[in-house]
Amino acid sequence: QVQLVESGGGLVQAGGSLRLSCAASRNIFTINTMSWYRQASGKQRELVALITRGGNTNYADSVKGRFSISGDVAKNTVSLQMNSLKPENTAVYCCKARDRASYWGQGTQVTVSS
Fold first, then answer.
1. pLDDT digits over 13-63, tens only?
2. Residue 5: helix, strand or coil by DSSP?
3. Whole-angstrom distance, CA of residue 55 vs CA of residue 83
4. I want to staple 22 with a disulfide (CB 3.0 to 4.6 A). Which of 15, 18, 29, 95 is the partner?
5. Strands 91-98 and 102-104, bridge-based pairing
6. DSSP of 51-85, one letter per residue?
């Protein structure tokens, strides 16, 4: 069974930066998109950023200009550079890979203190 493993979460002050990374335990050559989602306490999970095999990216409006997604979808690796972090960015961030199925990581906690 394929696992997605995230790393890079932690505690940071407002205005700081963090970089999240995600990789699959084994390569799934059919993956066509990888993305980052987040879920804050008491809120629904939301899409943060997505990257396609062709390198196209998409961002939630709230993170445009501050977050940047990069990676190699064919190799099932993706990163999320988060700058100018705000307390409202506090959440569990999960990596997702998709072909006909969806594969999820367990998530990594990001906490932004004010």
1. 999 999 999 999 999 889 999 999 999 999 999 999 999 999 999 999 999
2. strand
3. 21
4. 95
5. antiparallel
6. EETT--EEE-GGGTTTEEEEEEGGGTEEEEEE-S-
